[in-house]
Amino acid sequence: MIFINPKTDFAFKKIFGSEQSKDILISFLNSILYDSNPTIKDLEILNPYLVPKIRGLKDTYLDVKAKITGDKTVIIEMQVLNLEGFEKRILYNAAKAYSTQLDSGEDYTLLNPVIGLTITDFEMFSGLDKIISRFLLKEKDYLIDYPVYDIELIFVELPKFNKQISELVTLTDKWLYFLKSANKLDSVPEIMGEIPEIQKAFEVANQAGLTREEFENIEARQIYINDQKNAIKRAINQGIQQGIQQGIQQGSREAKIEIAKRLLKFLDAENVSQSTGLSLEEVQELEVTE
After folding, report:
1. Residue 154 contacts residue 33 (beta carbons within 8 Å)
2. Above 90 in pLDDT, residue 156?
3. Residues 66-79: pLDDT tens digits?
4. Alpha-carbon distance 117 to 154, whole Å?
5. Among 224, 178, 171, 196, which Cα is nearest to 5's?
6. Same-domain status, 105 and 185
7. Going by C-beta distance under 8 Å and a sequence separation of 6 or more, which residues neighbour residue 212?
8. 3 inside domain
9. If phi over 0 gives left and psi between -120 and 50 gives alpha, with beta otherwise, what is residue 118?
């Protein structure tokens, strides 16, 4: 079997966002939001368009939107590319999903909580070793929670999840493994198939069940993502090379050291030495101090 990549937005919506996928989405959200406890019993998959009630505001399209237990609304985005302004868009979408609940004249007490769940195929918070992180409003100095817990931002950083099949224990482990690795598998692992909702997710993700149009859409989206990733890499590499050349032309030791420190995040000591003109010993000393 060949499975589609759940990390592309079209595939993610097909697996988690259709009416036939309610049980899949319930299991997935329980695993991420509620530590695998069966808190969500039922949900309603909503129209993912966030149409503004105020004229002139931007329309927004989300990957999946659902109303869950406790009258909470969850907006879910699968983000593969780390694009400029992405962090602000997350806040914008959550705030708009919260504010568009009311019509003119309705009381603020009618507002229900909104959870913005964002799954990224890149690291957002390098200073955190957690795969799943949660953000709420707090007082700046004393870190006291704001009295109303109505907007919560939850992030799942897939690159931080590195468990192998033999290490999967919790429902959360298994869903994260599905998201990260389903398209690399040629069959459903036994430990994953034990969960009916995950087994069903694999069935939905099976390329054999796609229409020609669906397959072409997924293929086109994957090509676009690959092209964008390569463009970002090229821009980074060009920026690094320009910095190296500028530093070398300036000839100052301080400039070379600063460039070497930056390059050590991407290259080994030997390559950094060759690129900057610093000795291997000097670069290795920088590597230790960093």
Report:
1. yes
2. yes
3. 999 989 999 999 98
4. 5
5. 178
6. yes
7. none
8. no
9. beta
Nearest-angstrom CA–CA distance, 148 and 39: 21
Rg (C-alpha) for the chain, rounded Å, is 23
Residue 290 burial class via C-beta count within 10 angstroms: exposed 0-12, middle 13-18, buried 19 and up: exposed
Residue 86 has a CB neighbour count (10 Å cut-off) of: 15
Q: Could you give the number of structural domains in the chain? A: 2
Burial class (CB in 10 A: 0-12, 13-18, 19+), 191: middle
| 123/149 Cα distance (integer angstroms) | 26
Most confident of 28-32, 86-90, 207-211, 278-282: 28-32
Give Cα 249 distance to the centre of its chain: 40
In this structure, are residues 175 and 191 in contact, taking their beta carbons and an 8 Å threshold? no
**Are 100 and 137 a contacting pair, CB within 8 Å?**
no
Same domain, yes or no, for 60 and 137? yes
Looking at the structure, do residues 203 and 251 belong to the same domain, yes or no?
Answer: no
Statement to judge: residues 85 and 173 lie in one domain? yes
- 288 band by pLDDT with thresholds 50, 70 and 90: confident
Residue 76: closest CA among 176, 182, 158, 154: 154
Q: Range of 266's domain?
A: 220-289
Tokens of 220: 């086109």
Parallel/antiparallel/unpaired status of strands 64-68 and 132-135: unpaired
Distance, in Å, from the CA atom of 89 to the CA atom of 153, rounded to the nearest integer, reads: 12
Do 49 and 106 sit in the same domain of this protein? yes
> E strands along 142-233, which residues?
151-157
Say whether both 128 and 269 belong to one domain.
no
